[in-house]
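2 proteins. here.
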Amino acid sequence: MSGDATNETLLAVRDLRVTLATARGPAEAVRGLDFTLRRGETLGIVGESGCGKSLTALALMGLLPDNGHAGGSVLFRGDDILRYDERRMCGLRGNRLAMIFQEPMTSLNPLHRIGDQIAEPLQQHLGLSRRQAYERAVELLDRVGIPNPRARLDSYPHQMSGGQRQRVMIAMALACDPDILIADEPTTALDVTIQGQILDLIRKLVDDSGMALILISHDLGVIAETVDRVLVMYAGRAVETGPVREVFAGLRHPYARGLFAAMPRLAAGQPHPRPRLPTIPGVVPDLRDLGAACAFAPRCALAEPRCANDFPPFVPVGPQHGAECWRTDMTRERP
């Protein structure tokens, strides 16, 4: 791959906002998100449940729920796909943009054989005949490590294990050689051994194909082992972002530090019983009640009056590392 192709910006997200209509009024679930993704790059989006990770992915794919609306811009190869109608998105989705969903058992159609589900995007987007699509499906199942792939074409989702179903989802996502792969918690429902196998598979496929990856997770360990850059979300905002090693070595946002401190660690000679893990005090704010200030301020030990009154700036703390916080000077040491 040429250097120019490697540096190509595939995705530029600018001021992305996702608003949900609720019975109590609008709730802004994603609030002004910005990031870029170049060919071959891997980006992790991390944060606790409800921070806006999955809604960000659904907005990129044009799959928001009926009560959701996306604003801002999402430039794919310079074209704002938020302005696409459903017909144009259907030509992009599953073709140039692909997604591995969190739970394959609810994402795969239980009434259709695996072969039919993999062949469908190949016929729709690439114009392959049924026979050609099935031959390609065999290759894809073999590529993702499904034993006896030709026989598996006739299997239904319920006849496969959780790890095999996730591999089928990956095969479907890779069917048309997408430019960008979005993986939303792809290992949540799997045991630890299968998790490692799936993550290794995703890393290898990304390295082999040169596509870009967005990996969404609440697991900092998964993010640390899988991606090059990380974006930490809280209440719909990117509160810290940068190269994953640099960010984890010098976390500057109090929320990111709290997440890191709450990770279980195994160490030789650790006392028994082990000490309780630190917790972040308070509760996640209601998305309907967020104001023009730091949403984390009510839970933050470093908060001061301006944190509750003014929106914090995004402060560069390294060449590519920054945090959205007034108090980055107080968070220099790793927790």
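next one coming up
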Amino acid sequence: MKDRSGRGPRRDAVPAGRRVTLARALSKLGHCSRSEGEALVRAGRVSLDGRVVTNTGTWVDIETAAIAVDGVPVAESARLYLMLNKPRGLVTTRSDPEGRPTVYDCLSGLDHPHLSPVGRLDRASEGLLLFTNDTVFAQALLDPGTHVAKTYHVQIDRIADAALIDALTSGVVHDGERLAAASARMLREGGRNSWLEIVLTEGRNRQIRRMLEALDTACLRLIRVAIGDLALGDLGKGAARALTEAEVAGLRRF
């Protein structure tokens, strides 16, 4: 990109290597979220190489920069990876302006500095939710190009037939957007409802609920039971645990 003088790109305009904005650096180092980092910078609480900086867009090199918050040097935090069996009724946010319970209420007894959820489950949904302070890891899992499979068990208000299963995988249109599952199959059925296993490889907002709505079918329960090869297993409702090294490595394969 040339500047207005036509002399080529400005040196401070092009990030290279691990050059990121100052607020982003605080996030990548595991100190806080990017939005929290921006607030700290604007408040004049962050120094770069001994000088207070209030411009949130200042570029820094994480490898060489000396960053401090309130005079305390910021070091790269140990990487943490947790899984939670999210109960229904919790919102996936750190705090809620309406005062509703959040997923962080389940982590109150754990050491979880600056952990953020990897994606979201809406308030009515349940099951496997990941948390980490490794922003690169989180972004890779959320990137649509990685096609990480997410498996859900879904209870619907009718007995599923072949036409419904086929429509879920061939695709439906909801609010002008085409939505399709990677796979769908019947798990079991009762007198008036049935359970499906639905696998998604793209992260559209409320995708399963919207597909079912387009097919005049109500979603009674929605539980995420796996992300890639990582299964929820027998983790109790509302319980959380650290991922093993093998589990983290398994997710990194994607």
